Fold each of these.
Amino acid sequence: MSLRAVRQTGDPILRKESKEVIDLTDRLKELIVDMKDTMKELGGCGLAAVQVGVLKRIIICAPNEDEGIVVLINPEIINASDELIEDSEGCLSVDGYRGKVLRPKSIVVKAKDENMKDIEFDAEDFFARVICHEVDHLNGVLYTDKVLDGTLEEIREESGDNA
Ligand SMILES: [Zn+2]
């Protein structure tokens, strides 16, 4: 196991578009293991490969205790509810801040799993929020770009659900 350094806002890599994964090489498998370890260590609930400096379309999400860590490769949001929910978000790449963002209440996601098998599923509420946040990372977007006016605030303690 090895932990990887999480890139912080201001690092230009966070603004780049990540590339599709064609082949899940041993190197990328090792990256996924390291991403899981890094996210657990930092107490986050989601992480995109670009956040550890690798421009590949790989994200991991830990929406709740039961689901464990979900690995999504080349994730796409193919449908989103019109209904939007306003909730607070944090990001491991924007240390020490939280802010409110509108996200769809539910989404339909198409991706490949850890075995490069095609999957499609519905996600709701917090799980949907984390996936939207991570897919934004793959497109060079940070939640601070979308934060509702006047809601970005500095926090003292990590709340454990940063992504
Ligand atoms: Zn983030």
Amino acid sequence: MDDSRDPKALFDETAAQGGCGPLARSMAAGPYGLKQQVYEAVRAFGNVSRADLAKHLDVSPASVTTIVSDLISHGFLKEYQAAKREQHRGRPPVALALEPRAGYVLGMKLSDAKHSAVIVDLTGDVIAEAALDAPPRRRDVETLMAQIDDVVARVLTAAEIRLEDLTAIGIGLPGGVDHTAGRVVWSPILDTQNIELRALAEKRYGRPVTIDNDTNLMAMAELWFGEGRRMANFAVVTIEHGVGMGVVIDHAIFRGSHGLGMELGHIKVQLDGALCRCGQRGCLEAYIADYALVREASIALDWTPSSSDANHVLLESLFDQAKAGNEAARTIFRRAGRYLAVGLATVVNLFDPALIILSGERMRFDYLYADDVLAEMRGLSLNGKLAPPVQINAWGDMVWARGAAALGLEKATTLLLEAE
Ligand SMILES: [Zn+2]
């Protein structure tokens, strides 16, 4: 074995033939049984021979064979016949793969004006999608639960499966979410605080549920299906109505003590500065969120926006003006870009991530990742030459729900293998 390799790495990443899930085990997850290690390695590989499994897990071929037989007899793994051309490339004729339909997971992202959901099989493949537009206002718990009912019904119908077929449900929403306790401490889409959402949903649907902050869904999506699979440390910064961040440390999401950390949008970039929607002053968000840009534009361009115009409509118009060469509009965006650079440099200085992924609806506004913004980020980083690359995620809207599904898959894996 090559000693220079990350000792926790499941396998040489170049050997991965598809598959999903992190390519290395997180120490934070505690000790794994060999059965779970085998299952997760097969999932991460896509397909793999028994001999390679034993080699990569550093255990005897005999113990792998015993566990594999057990997992096959319970319908979790299956034999996989490698295609002729794969055999020509030196792949063994018979490999192992996950039995995709041994369970299903529902992933759901709740947000202000739209809820979206996917159902995936155990290999992470999306079977069905559904979405529901909801009136964009704070709602009480009963209203939210009724909306969740609606989305669940829609996506189950689209997938042609029943509620009982689900092994787990993953739900993400904006705000402070205590993943461990299953509690929504606060959320901009709810009119009450400290909601025991996990317990409520488990009682309602009779299925195991796991919940998280929505930005962590984006980090989960990267960790399970994206670039983050092969990275120990990275950060995902989302710019939507507000600014969020998910941080992966040692192949696992970092959640803090109460799920309330990583509020990049509310780091202070100016003492006694602009008023933020959180009620405090000088937050990063108060300089780069859509409402902040619209606020500035209404002063600089002497706008008197009618209340019927949503912020995003005004923002589009401002962006069009900047592109057309309006100097005042350009200055507003340039300034916002500089503030974003301050925020990103803070992330670099605190976490030294291998990669920063910028993601979200606002990524179509290219001023946010213009060359001079990234140059400024490097300039403000203490070790600017080692500042990480910044990647723009062009994934579609359903990526949030897929991240929620990854959250559910994590839970489903343990449940399935324990129950057997
Ligand atoms: Zn704030």
Amino acid sequence: MAAALKLAGVRKSFDGFPALDHADFEAEAGEVHALLGENGAGKSSLMNVAAGLYAPEAGRIFVDGEEVVLTGPRDAIARRIGMVHQEFKLVRPFTVAENVLLANWRGRFAHGLREMERQIRTQAEQLGFAVDPRSRIDELSIAERQRVEIIKVLLAGARILILDEPTAVLTDEEAVRLLTTVRTLAARGTAVILVTHKLGEVTAFADRVTVMRGGRAVAVLDARSTTADELTKLAVGTRVTPPRRASSPPGARRIAVEGLQVARADGHMTVVDATFHVRAGEIYGIAGVGGNGQTELVEALTGVRAPLAGSVELDGAGDTTGASAERLRDLGIASIPADRFGYGLAGGLSVIDNFCVGQVHTAFYGSWLWTDGASMRKAATRAVAEFDVQGVHNMRQKSALLSGGNAQKLIIAREFSRDPKVIIAHSPSRGLDVRACAAVHERLLNARAAGAAIVLISDDLDEVLSLSDRIGVMTRGRIAAEFIAPADRQAVGRVMVHHA
Ligand SMILES: Nc1ncnc2c1ncn2[C@@H]1O[C@H](COP(=O)(O)OP(=O)(O)OP(=O)(O)O)[C@@H](O)[C@H]1O
Ligand SMILES: [Mg+2]
């Protein structure tokens, strides 16, 4: 039987630099096919070719054995190829149904919104999701938005479903739910392509796995009989050992948060009472199911959102409650936000500008009258090399063109290069390959050894458990319990779900 999707000898370059070269790929109907490879290996680019978004310079595409030429995403949808992208493409002020309708207006417009709402409900039910077609995208959590994306693509008729790092933005529990749904879809004959950096997902949920390196596929393996070690070696060329936290006595209280209350933009109070402190040389982990106030807590701690009540005290600076992001930055607070392009980077600006933004006014790169372009370039170039941000061929290139993981590395390079006193890190390893993930963990531990106070908020419980000195579990806007390392995974997990 011919493969549902086959790509042969694909080549695609950007500004003369090849992102894909002789890339081959095949997925069969009824299988979950994982696509693995380091940041910048070309996974998203290859899938964008299959989804009709990028026109390849060379290579052939076959659907069910028949050669096709895709002139655009609509063409790919007509061939029943659908893709859920790494950065979602939903229109935020619109409702779920309106978004689905926008993507499917041709064939089903005649039936209108009502019919669309009915179809969304049916599709959601079949997948085991609860989705209200009338809610606005803004009001939905990341996991819910992702379900909308999947429903949108399936209602357009996709039977080759490409999911680009779907679990990067999900909690463990949400990820297992999604992957179980994915298995159901495969059992019904869909070819599911799952791009991921999580090796455990590959061995537990995929049938086969293609490993990419440097723009081409280097191996296709049976996912069930391979090991995480073998996959890592193929993907990054070496073995990766995660860094370990050395025990060391913490110093003085660096940041103290007392009775903090924060509301979302719509007025809903999501942080009800956050009380904790972090000492110099300490990592304070905040575990919890996503959507329990973590994002708003981070926003309040980094000056993006003013709290309604409570206080934040910073050692040496006194009360900094409600201080602006700029002031907090000047006081030595670094921030690695979970929403890369929302808060972390200005996609339209160059790599240099993104690196130096926030320091231009500090006279570090010239005075307020002029900026020292040469030293900006030098500092940015050094950091890009040191933090292994790949795919930067020109420091003036827009940061939006970096691969997902490399964009995250650029933020991390910027934030760590300032010797911060306090680091607020929200899902810092999101979207990073195994090696980059280990490198970020090592940076956090080095900053801890150098005396920084670190707040680590993460949906990834293992990340929190392995790095933190103390762990607060956040549920319903409160730190419901605190654990001292080494904390028992199940005990932490119980508080997470019990109070949620
Ligand atoms: N539209 C674009 N313009 C310029 N360069 C691009 C574009 N899209 C991708 N690239 C480059 O192509 C290379 C491969 O990127 P791609 O996004 O395919 O990697 P990836 O394997 O998906 O990585 P990640 O795991 O970080 O998401 C990178 O160097 C990236 O900068
Ligand atoms: Mg990608």
